[in-house]
Design a protein that fits this description.
By secondary structure, the chain is α/β, with parallel strands linked by helices. The chain is 30% helix and 21% strand. The protein is built from four helices and five strands. The chain has a five-stranded mixed beta sheet with strand order 1-2-3-4-5. Helix 2 links the parallel strand 3 and strand 4. The two termini are 20 Å apart.
Length: 137
């Protein structure tokens, strides 16, 4: 499969690993647009399962900036009008990636972010294009 992007990658992972979750696709976090100077931020996925909110950011090739994105989304979540009902639910942050990176994984753990390496067969061609590698991390 060519031209696999993070959206497809995340959708397949969530469907396979959390099939009963309440899933929100491309939901903005933070205050509504009625506030002056407010920017909008979109995590790759938010899902709720068993009373826990999961905020997920995926990078097929891991980058440290995903950690900052997750920290920002997590901070803005309670101020999101659409999620008022869940603002006090426990939250977990997940960084989903197809490649292991010990340094970025360590940084994620330092910030209580679960670092998940998931490398399905359909991702190999995309990894080869992005990294010039096949069959190795």
């Amino acid at each position: 499969m060519s031209n696999v992007n993070e959206t497809y990658y995340v959708n397949v992972w969530v469907k396979q690993t959390h099939p009963n979750a309440l899933v929100y696709h491309r939901m903005r976090v933070g205050r509504g647009s009625s506030y002056t100077g407010v920017e909008r931020y979109y995590p790759d996925k938010i899902f709720i399962e068993d009373g826990v909110v999961y905020v997920l950011e995926a990078k097929i090739k891991p980058v440290s900036s995903a950690i900052g994105q997750l920290l920002l989304y997590n901070k803005l979540f309670p101020d999101t009008p659409e999620f008022f009902f869940a603002k006090d639910f426990p939250r977990k942050m997940i960084m989903l990636t197809a490649l292991n990176n010990d340094i970025i994984e360590g940084m994620a753990k330092d910030h209580n972010i679960e670092y998940i390496v998931w490398r399905p067969a359909f991702i190999e061609e995309e990894l080869a294009k992005r990294t010039g590698m096949t069959g190795r991390d």
